[in-house]
Amino acid sequence: MGDQTSWTDKDAVTGRLARKAFAFGACLGRAAKAVKDTGAGWDDLAALMDMAHFRRTAADGVAMDWPAYRDLLLTASAPPGFRKQINRISEAGNRVFTELTEYETIADGTEKVVHICTVHAFDDSDRLVSLDIYTQG
């Protein structure tokens, strides 16, 4: 959950909501770290999302509201040797689709690779209301 993100072409992201989805991802990592370090940090996220209606659904089908997801963020941390690469981001209607690859170097030195597609859904006020995560790998 850090800023270890690379893009194939960040400047190619021009859609209003695609930029918001990108900002959400970057802000999420910073906010979780700030809360762990100082006890405050969710304000920037509040401007990007509808926390009262937000739902995150993981690849295993488990859905959680904002308080549950916030708690997950506070207990989880990126392992050493973790990085992610955002390959593509596309906007269609009020949805943003992001293809990314996560890499994690595990204890024996091998690299675990997971391919992920996320779907960010926004309301009519351009606030994030759901995040769905699909994985392969």
Salient structural properties:
about 140 residues, alpha/beta, Nuclear Transport Factor 2, Chain: A, 7-stranded mixed β-sheet, 3 helices, globular, disordered N terminus
Topology:
Blueprint: E1 5-7, H1 16-38, H2 43-46, E2 55-57, E3 63-65, H3 66-75, E4 82-92, E5 95-105, E6 111-122, E7 128-136
Parallel strand pairs: 1-4, 2-7
Antiparallel strand pairs: 2-3, 4-5, 5-6, 6-7
Description:
- It is built from three helices and seven strands; from the N terminus they run βααββαββββ.
- It has helices spanning 16-38, 43-46, 66-75; strands at residues 5-7, 55-57, 63-65, 82-92, 95-105, 111-122, 128-136.
- The chain has a seven-stranded mixed sheet with strand order 1-4-5-6-7-2-3.
- A hairpin with a 5-residue loop joins strand 6 and strand 7 (128-136).
- The longest helix has 23 residues, at 16-38.
- 16% of the residues are buried.
- Mean pLDDT is 86; it is low at 1-6.
